[in-house]
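Re: How this chain folds, sequence and tokenised backbone to follow
Notation: Tokens come from a learned vocabulary of local backbone shapes, not from coordinates.
Start of record: The labelled sequence and token lines come straight after this line.
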Amino acid sequence: MTEQKKGGLLAAFIAVTTLFFAWGFVTSINDPLVAAVKKIFSLNYAEATLTQFAFFIAYGIVSIPGGALVARVGYGRAIVFALLAMVAGCLFMPVATHADRYGLVLVALFIIASGMTVLQVAANPLSAALGRPEQSHFRLVLSQAFNSLGTVIGPWMGAHIMLRGGLFSEGAVEITPAVRAESLQKIDLAYFILAAVLVVLVVYFWRSRERMANAAPTATGAHSSVLEAFRSRWAVLGAVAIFLYVGAEVSIASLMTNFLNRPDVLDVTLERAGKMTGLYYWGGAMVGRFAGSWLLTKVSAPRLLTIFAIVAAILCFTVTQGSGTVAGYAALAVGLFNSIMFPVIFTVTLERSTASTAATSSLLCMAIIGGAILPYIVGRSVDSVGLNTAFFIPLAAYIAIAFVAFSSARAPVVSVTRAATGTSH
């Protein structure tokens, strides 16, 4: 490979890595939004977690059309279209808040997530093409470390803007139309900032679209039917693991702000709790992904995944049995052990699936709807049995993931090159 070619691949990889950061930022800003809409619209936990449902259901609906769009227009243009859709969703958010309609807030989130789904369908194969296939575990986990940087900054910024002033002012606050309007305007500000960041990325990728195409031409005929993946035992098991992982991660993140705010846990303000979610829960995932990149050079991927899933289950069990700082920091520590799960599940599945890479990847991307379904189930459980007890649901999810990981260690590897195509959460 010539030095010029290497330089082009590096520049393209850096550009794509900014997208990993961007969608981490966008996804995690939902966490303080859950706490914000819960109070502003007087919602119970199940209703508040519909924000995550509206967001993650897009993965189940848009993944296949998104793949068709990428095949038709190429990576660069598809990324630009996806970013523009996300900008449109951000700009629709003030329309929803001005109308004071929670249902329209959910529509705005679905539009944003639809763009993000196409973005991931386009960006991940592009990222995968920018390095040697045998380094796929390392590369995807490292890319997700930058995704995690976005998930640290997103909740911090969202909490700083949305969970202060208005209804969230310290002390008793009289709920008046003016106070509610102030809190709704805080949501507008957060999404205006997000839209501005995305516009910068639109301009950059529009100017770079030809370079992207030259670095990694779009594969033709690569979008096999997802139905093919259902005939592979490991594609299905991997999809179940992705469904449970994303559902558990998003469920815990959605509850975290309100959980830490409780007087019998850490008794901090909602703003402080939201910032702690970013710094410790998502920050732990970032640290774990950097560390995981190194650990994966020493420990097999299935074994490391098994260990991390078991520890995450133990931490969830700790939360169910106690309160105070032990429960609070145990919940936050789950983020550290979530760190390597998504990329390792994805690549381990691709290595063992007997279906095509495209079909397996499509099924795994669709399985991200776990982030829509499991949080709603957990929200219903919180309304019925309380926050601590509801952690039994992600606990069960991590035990199931550990079982899949342990089983994968004994399963034959079909092809290491299959692991070169992945996605990020």
